[in-house]
Write a structure and sequence with these properties.
The protein is mainly alpha-helical. It has helices spanning about 10-25, 30-35, 40, 45-70, 75-90, 95-120, 125-130, 135-165, 165-190, 190-195. The protein is globular. This is Inner membrane-spanning protein YciB. Its main location: membrane. InterPro entries: YciB.
Length: about 200
């Protein structure tokens, strides 16, 4: 049963885990100084941040289930990958797994989009975006293909970055760089959105 959700809850569920991840990563030295526990002293800032990410992701999923009575598919996929690769990172004490997480998530999204379009003939971007954009089926098809290639490109880029750059650079790219690239990509699609736009009822 759905419950009345506070207006701030949606953004908190969406962005809370990544903010906690960043806070722990960049504030790790202060956390260790304040709580000089053996567990903290024997781990790395990236693994500690991964634990924070996992915990807040589970909390966010629980709140979504409590208030909405269901878990949206995209956050659920993301949460499952976070738990699997975050768990491997912590259990094996190997930062490689959490660095591969964005690659896996982006690849999954690309496969879902291409599979939905070419196998099931359904542009799966449409149910997610149709409240914001009203387009023809051809417009949704084009946009689905472009989003699919965007996710594949981001997967490849993540692999290049984590394999060649420092942890600090990768964390900044993962959080800030990927957001900037997403905004740039979406704005670059406005010619397609305008070209295949369908007038709303109040425009006719």
């Amino acid at each position: 049963m759905a419950r009345q959700k506070p207006s701030w809850m949606g953004p908190a569920i969406e962005y809370g885990p990544i903010l906690i991840f960043m806070g722990i990563y960049y504030g790790f030295d202060r956390i260790v100084a304040a709580f000089p526990h053996e567990i903290l002293q024997n781990t790395t800032q990236l693994i500690a941040a991964t634990v924070g990410l996992m915990i807040t992701t589970v909390i966010g999923i629980a709140f979504s289930l409590y208030y909405d009575g269901k878990i949206p598919k995209v956050p659920l996929i993301t949460a499952l990958v976070v738990m699997v690769f975050g768990g491997l990172t912590v259990y094996l004490n190997d930062e490689t797994f959490i660095k591969m997480k964005p690659t896996i998530i982006q690849t999954i999204f690309a496969v879902i989009l291409f599979g939905g379009l070419f196998i099931f003939k359904r542009p799966l971007i449409k149910p997610l975006m149709q409240k914001a954009w009203n387009m023809t089926d051809e417009g949704w098809r084009i946009l689905t293909i472009r989003f699919g290639f965007y996710f594949l490109g981001m997967a490849v880029l993540n692999e290049i970055v984590w394999r060649t750059q420092s942890n600090d650079f990768w964390v900044n790219f993962k959080v800030l760089g990927s957001m900037v690239l997403m905004v740039i990509f979406i704005f670059s699609q406005y010619p397609v959105i305008r070209r295949y736009h369908l007038p709303d009822e109040d425009e006719t």
